[in-house]
Structure formats: C-alpha cells, structure tokens
Write a structure and sequence with these properties.
- By secondary structure, the chain is mainly beta.
- It has a domain of 98 residues.
- It contains one helix and ten strands, in the order ββββββαββββ.
- The strands form two sheets. Strands 1, 2, 3, 6, 7, 8, 9 and 10 form an eight-stranded antiparallel beta sheet that branches.
- β1 and β2 form a beta hairpin.
- The longest helix is centred in the middle third of the chain and has 9 residues.
- The protein is elongated and about 65 Å long.
Length: 143
C-alpha cells in the first residue's frame, strides 16, 4: 500500500512571532528538547545509580537565509527592542517547494538572542547570509 507522504525536499522555514512575520529561511537548526537527568547514589546499593528526570531544556534555534528584502523585517524587529521587549509566542513552519506547510512548531516565551548580518568581502565572492537566533521556553500544543 502506498502512502501519500510529503517529504522534506527543498524545505523553507517561515518564522512568525506574534504579529511579526520575519519571513522565510533556508536553514533551521536547534529544534529539540532534552530531559535533564540527575543522578542519585543510594547508600548500600552498589548495582546502579538512580537516573531521575528533573526538567526539560531547550536549545536556541538558529535560522539562516541569503540576504534579501526580508532582512529589513529582522532589522526592524531588533531595532524595536531598544524601548523594551515583551516575550511572545512564535511559530516555525516547514514548507515544501510549493509552499505547502508540512510541519509546524509553536514556541512559548520566545526571547531574541542574536542577529548576525552578512560578511561583505569582495575577495570571497559567495552568497551572503544572515542568521537569527532565538531562545524559547518550550513548545505549545498544536491547535
């Protein structure tokens, strides 16, 4: 039996934070979670060490893309933080080449970490890239 599976070939990632659409990116890394394990040694028990799950930890997410018109959106978003920043929810959508959403992740309590602009060097002609890095405090359930 054949399944109609939409694989992630030629994927783009759309980043939206509350009402701010920051555009599409060509790479996305850092989506994940880790359970922090605390080890406890029990007196008189020499067979094993207790492995106790304690909390979840989320890595920062980095999205990159070639420099383009959407760079202005990121620059405007970062510039708005000079007057203070309120945490927001975020949405990352993975889309195929036709623009169909194939997966999405809702993020809780998004915090901006870093924007890295392009390296402009005429001695090294290559595609100039920008990177946005965000932190978050977990995933929200799907609607």
């Amino acid at each position: 039996m054949l399944q109609d599976t939409d694989t992630a070939l030629s994927v783009r990632y759309k980043l939206a934070l509350d009402s701010a659409n920051l555009g599409t990116f060509s790479t996305c890394e850092g989506l994940g979670a880790e359970v922090v394990i605390e080890q406890r040694e029990e007196g008189g028990n020499n067979d094993f060490v207790w492995q106790l799950p304690s909390r979840l930890k989320y890595p920062n997410i980095k999205l990159s893309r070639p420099l383009g018109r959407e760079t202005e959106k990121v620059a405007t978003w970062f510039a708005s933080m000079t007057s203070g920043y309120q945490r927001c929810t975020g949405m990352i959508q993975a889309m195929n080449a036709q623009g169909t959403v194939i997966a999405e992740w809702s993020l809780y309590d998004v915090v901006p970490v870093r924007w890295t602009g392009p390296v402009l060097n005429p001695d090294q002609p290559k595609v100039v890239m920008e990177t946005v890095e965000i932190a978050h405090h977990g995933f929200l359930p799907s609607a």
